Amino acid sequence: MLENYFPVLIFLIVGFAFGCAPIILGRVLGPHNPDSEKISAYECGFEAFEDARMQFDVRYYLIAIIFILFDLEIAFLFPWATIFKEIVATPSVKMFGFWEMIVFLGILVIGYIYAWARGALDWE
């Protein structure tokens, strides 16, 4: 009975090796010479090794939420694009699929214009 699980064990060992080998090799073979430039603030706007309970500007969270929002909306375009040939090939669905995506993109553009007009995309 246990011999049936041997391929699963091999799969887990190989998967673990593929996951851990690059990390271990990078740690062993990579240089370890941090300087002031490497540990300086990078893209997030705060010092790397400071108090974790410091306050962030609200605009930072607003930009992050807007990015996630538009990123998820763009992810809804991929299923539509993958079946685009079937949508175009079916005469009864052709115009419905087109207008459905036009409405979706219109809502996306209206949301983008609204965020832009409210100053949510301005970083001072």
CA-atom Rg in angstroms: 25 Å
Strand content: under 5%
Secondary-structure element order, as H and E?
HHHHH
Global structural class: mainly alpha
Average pLDDT works out at: 83
- Summarize the main sheet: none
Number of strands: 0
Q: Tell me which oligomeric state these chains represent.
A: single chain
User: End-to-end distance, in Å?
Assistant: 66 Å
Overall description:
It is a single chain. The chain is mainly α and 124 residues long. It has helices at 6-29, 58-75, 77-82, 84-89, 91-117. The longest helix has 27 residues, at 91-117. The protein is flat and about 60 Å long.
What's the quick description here?
The chain is mostly helical and about 120 residues long. It has helices spanning about 5-30, 60-75, 75-80, 85-90, 90-115. It has a domain at about 55-124.
Provide the descriptors you would attach to this structure in a database record:
single chain, 124 residues, mainly alpha, 5 helices
Topology:
Layout: H1 6-29, H2 58-75, H3 77-82, H4 84-89, H5 91-117
